[in-house]
Write a structure and sequence with these properties.
Layout (H helix, E strand, L loop, with lengths): L28 H12 L8 H14 L1 H18 L4 H22 L8 H17 L10 E2 L2 E2 L1 H16 L1 H4 L28 H13 L6 H19 L13 H9 L3 H8 L3 H15 L10 H13 L8 H24 L1
Antiparallel strand pairs: 1-2
Protein name: C6 zinc finger protein
InterPro entries: Fun_TF, Zn2-C6_fungal_TF
GO molecular function: DNA-binding transcription factor activity, RNA polymerase II-specific
């Protein structure tokens, strides 16, 4: 399902108090099961369990777009955990997702301080649902079959809310108080790797290739490479000062995605080689998000899709991301084995 582009005449401050709930909601046994599952599953409540188990359900009761999307994500997780009933849960998920998404699009043109928190959480759930639905042929994270994917467009609308109103407005009401930034925790050995991710030579190679190309889109590629470099630094550190955590942070890595500008997206739609090579290197960071249940398989799928488009002429430039994904996969398998032996 494709979302329409964010309206150019979007109003940020209106008198509409909130997302109007449907007063005729009637709970079914399936809904109750999915609500319970959402609130008790560790995989569905990563990072801040109080936010997802207490605050978001409370927000959802007054904002049914959030409630529908919450139940949709929970249903996809149940489909994964109960393969014998997967088709039934997926049908339930699709129903809730369709209604929730329509309600989100209804409020998107009328953002205000009262409904921005609901929209922020709803967008997060839309992203989770999109990833949990799994990759499909032609889906390259940002584009799918030549068009920009729905959740990236929606993220841009939320980006404008964050930049205009700030997180203080988002984490108000049912979501209050705003989470405070916690000092970095010392990770256990099972979540660390001694290996250094040598991303700098790989990105520099692409940057050098772009610099001597005389390509008219050079500025677009250089800007994306700068943002990608920052994302790698925050996630993997540098050769001199490496970071050894196996897992990456969603807000950092997906942040690189939603900052992607229209011009770069157009280059991807046009299947321009430099844009695809940059995307292939971003995939390494996507691999570091596979601690999230819905991200499994995405990195390999995207890289395979890029390789099919570029063909053998660019295989040498794809060697590092391909080999790095394999190394990261081995580390994740070792981490899971270590976690299992400790439980």
């Amino acid at each position: 399902m494709n979302l329409p582009s964010t309206p150019s005449n979007m109003t940020l401050f209106t008198e509409s108090p909130q997302v109007t709930p449907n007063p005729t909601w009637i709970w079914t046994v399936d809904d109750l099961e999915l609500q319970h599952h959402f609130m008790t599953s560790d995989e569905l409540c990563p990072g801040d369990p109080i936010l997802w188990r207490v605050k978001v359900p409370k927000l959802a009761f007054g904002n049914h777009c959030v409630l529908h999307l919450l139940l949709a994500v929970s249903a996809l997780h149940m489909a994964r955990n109960k393969p014998d009933e997967a088709s039934r849960y997926k049908a339930i998920a699709d129903g809730h997702y369709g209604v929730g998404l329509r309600q989100v699009m209804d409020i998107l043109p009328n953002l205000n301080r009262e409904n921005c928190g609901a929209l922020y959480i709803a967008t997060t759930l839309v992203c989770s649902y999109s990833f949990a639905s799994g990759p499909s042929p032609g889906h390259l994270l940002i584009i799918s079959d030549g068009t920009e994917v729905a959740w990236v467009e929606l993220l841009r609308g939320v980006k404008m809310v964050v930049e205009t109103m700030g997180f203080e407005a988002i984490f108000a009401g049912a979501l209050a108080p705003m989470p405070t930034e916690q000092p970095p925790k010392e990770l256990p050995p099972s979540e660390m790797t001694e290996r250094v991710v040598l991303w700098e030579p790989a990105l520099q190679r692409i940057a050098d290739l772009v610099a001597v190309s005389n390509d008219p889109d050079t500025g677009i590629y250089e800007k994306m490479l700068t943002d990608l470099t920052s994302c790698f630094q925050q996630t993997c550190g540098t050769a001199k000062e490496p970071r050894h955590a196996i897992d990456g942070k969603m807000e950092i890595i997906i942040g690189c995605v939603y900052r992607t500008e229209d011009e770069f997206v157009q280059c991807l739609k046009d299947k321009k080689p430099f844009a695809l090579l940059i995307l292939a290197h971003l995939v390494v960071l996507i691999k570091k998000l596979e601690w999230l249940w819905y991200m499994t398989g995405w990195a390999s799928h995207i890289l395979h899709g890029v390789a099919l488009i570029l063909g053998p002429d660019f295989s040498e430039y794809l060697r590092w991301p391909r080999e790095e994904i394999e190394r990261l996969n081995e580390e994740r398998i070792h981490k899971k084995q270590s976690d299992s032996s400790n439980n």
